[in-house]
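> example.struct
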């Protein structure tokens, strides 16, 4: 029997957080190895585990997988979160790409100066409320189902909830004009596996802080 998936990343959100979300939503227990030193990262490089010299890295089903999208697609397909047919899979992909674009506006947040943070907050809220949230609001209104695609819980639902919560951390009232999304958030948050992940003590990571930013810079030797 295969062991638990093992996640290699830093002790923070970054590009691994959506992977944590999807595994948790699927009800899959996983282990984490947190990189804290440059030497740990270089060891992964030397062992040939990081094909493109970057994280995240996930060990699952005897594979050492890299590239966030590939990892997420595999998890979604393996745990029946990828629709019932090719058309539904295409819709899920399309919706996930939209929420990914929104999340990428937030990803650099911990590396910004205080002034740049305020400017970026404005951009995030503007894009969320004018470009992204209206799309999902209409999808839910027109679809008249509990979920974004078909009538089955999918990767698209998990990703949208994660994006909503990330934007709410920048402005708590951001859903005030989106009743469908408010109801969607409440509904998906009550799914047992998701509810468990949202509770204190889970493997969900907090909003990245200065300590996380410094660890990223030290381990990956990145400058911002």
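> example.seq
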């Amino acid at each position: 029997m295969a062991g638990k998936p093992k996640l290699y990343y830093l002790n923070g959100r970054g590009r691994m957080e959506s992977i944590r979300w999807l595994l948790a939503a699927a009800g899959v227990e996983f282990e984490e190895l947190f990189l804290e030193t440059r030497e740990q990262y270089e060891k992964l490089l030397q062992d040939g585990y990081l094909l493109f010299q970057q994280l995240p890295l996930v060990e699952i089903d005897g594979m050492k997988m890299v590239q966030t999208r590939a990892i997420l697609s595999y998890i979604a397909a393996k745990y029946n979160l990828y629709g019932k047919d090719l058309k539904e899979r295409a819709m899920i992909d399309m919706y996930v790409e939209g929420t990914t674009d929104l999340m990428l506006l937030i990803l650099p947040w911990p590396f910004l100066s205080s002034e740049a943070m305020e400017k970026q907050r404005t951009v995030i809220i503007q894009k969320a409320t004018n470009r992204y949230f209206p799309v999902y609001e209409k999808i839910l209104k027109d679809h008249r189902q509990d979920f974004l695609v078909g009538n089955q819980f999918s990767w698209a639902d998990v990703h949208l909830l994660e994006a909503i919560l990330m934007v709410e951390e920048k402005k708590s009232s951001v859903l005030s004009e989106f009743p469908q999304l408010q109801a969607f958030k409440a509904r998906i948050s009550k799914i047992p596996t998701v509810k468990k992940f949202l509770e204190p003590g889970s493997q969900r990571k907090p909003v990245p802080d200065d300590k996380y930013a410094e660890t990223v810079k030290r381990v990956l030797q990145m400058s911002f």
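> remarks
The radius of gyration is 18 Å.
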